[in-house]
Each structure stands twice: as structure tokens, then as C-alpha cells.
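Worked Example 4.2. Read the sequence first, then its C-alpha cells.
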Amino acid sequence: MRFSCLAPMGIPRFAARDISILNGKYVIPTGTVVLGHIQQIIRDPKVFTNPDEFNPSRFLNEKGEFVKNNQNIVFGTGKRDCLGRSLAQVEFFLFYSSLMQNFNFNWAEGDDLENLSIKGIVGFTQSPKPFKAILTKRPL
């Protein structure tokens, strides 16, 4: 499975001054719109082993505790990263844990599980490709 971002290109920024990169090989002039390709950064094979595979354990230590990785910038970077970051993380946890507590998940018959991918449909944002699943209510 491939790991993806909701907004693979991030938010546009402007260069506040001339910026020299790669030892002066390139110069980004003042006022230039800059888009960081977040999906490429978080899928760098030099940083993440098998970056195209969904593997949440890459962010855990031996004790199963979360370990911060500065290359994991899914919410952007700097002082203007995602304003809703903390709310999104809490809400996702509540939403996901509620689903796991209340439902059993199964694949719909006829779906080809070997070819299932979370690569998604890429535009300014990224959406999952349609798939079929069966949710059954867990007994109380």
C-alpha cells in the first residue's frame, strides 16, 4: 500500500527575500511563490524504509511510544503549519477509535484485495479511490 497526503503540495508560501539553495546553484527571488511537495518529503527512501508501504510502526520506538521525526511534515512546517493540527489529531483519534469500538470491518465480496491501494486520486487535495467494505455493528 502507498502512504499519501491529503494535500500533497501543501500551502503556497512567498519568498520574503532572495534565497540561495544548494550552495548558490539556484536562487529563489524575493516574491516567488514556493510550493513544497510534502508527499515527496515524507516518502524519502533515505529517511523512511519502504516509504510506499503503510507502516505506522516506523514512528514508534521499542516500547511502542511515538517518536517525533522532523521529516514527517504532513501538517506542514514552521510557525504557519496547519492551524487545525491539534484539533485534527484529537478528532481523528476519537473518530477512528469510535469506529473500531463499534464496528467490525470486512471487505465486500468481489473486491480484489491484492490490488487494493491507497494511492488515491491526486489533485490539489488527494482523495481515496472508491472501494467497498462491509461494516457490521459490534454487540454491546
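Now turn to a second chain, presented in exactly the same format:
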Amino acid sequence: MYKKLTNIIEACQKGDRASQKHLYTLFSARLYGVCLRYSNNEEDAKDILQEGFIKIFKNIKQYNHNGSFEGWMRKIVVNTALERFRKSTRSLTIDNEDYMDSLQVNYEHVIEELAYKDLVKMVQELSDQYRIVFNLYVIEGFSHKEISQKLNIGESTSKSNLSRARELLKEKVRKQYKNKSTGKVI
């Protein structure tokens, strides 16, 4: 029988290893999904997850039971991914600062046909600069101002990166759809 989450958290705050393992078992799959969106391969995602859980257990005493515990952990994992990204790149650049999203084609019916795994793979294939901004804006709900502060880039750069990421994803969806409709294997 599973302990209540509050009991598990309190036991983790006391350093109980069995409760830490239990907490990891409960949340690792969901948080791994977050890690996959911020990495470009499974190995990096696993590393981010590992680093994230180390930080979660190190800082769990700071969790005061206000708000969503899963949200608190998610924030730590996202910040871990961003730290890892900042360490690997000095700055974010874009191909064209004034780039505008010009495609107005609606591919909702195509997206419904794609599996979640396919969509995650498409996002993972984006360059770091586009993938990070896309995830922060679309998935995490940060504003361009917040993204610019987190990544030390201009708001216009954040907007351009998002616009470019969207176009690249639309193109990937278009190719996937064409390949599905013609029967060609990607």
C-alpha cells in the first residue's frame, strides 16, 4: 500500500532513502518527459533527470507544502535543463533576427494523427536555441520577457526563435504527413 504523498515528502525531508526511491518511482516517468523536451537525445534527458532528482532531494526541505509538489519538482527539472544548456552554449543566436512566421496553413488534423512520440522527436531535432525557447514559451508558459531574462537574450530574439521553431516544426509535420499519405517511409 502506497503512503500518502505528504508522508512520502516528509520522510524524504528527513533523508529516508526508501521514501526517496518511492518518490522517484512515482514521478520519474513524468519528469523524464519534461527532460526529453529539453534535450536532443535520450542520454541527455536521463542525465538531466538524474541531476534534477539530486537537486530535488538536496532542496526538498525547502518545499513548504504550498502549491503543487509536482510543479515544484518540474520547476527544478526545467531549471536543471536550462543550466545544462547554458553551460554548453555561450549565447543564443538566430539565422535572421527579423524572421517572421509566414506559414498560415492549418495542420491540426495532421497533428492529431501523429503520435506523441513523433512530436517529441520532432521537437528534439530542433537546434538547442529553438528547442529551449519553444519549450519555455509553449510548454512552460513563460513570456518572452521571462525567457529573455532566463537565457540572457533579447525579447525580439526570443520571439524570432519561437517563430523559427514553429516554422521548422510545421515543415517537419508537413513532411511527415506527405510521407504518410504517399506511403513512403521517412
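Notes for the reader: The chain is about 70% helix and 0% strand. The longest helix spans residues 155-182.
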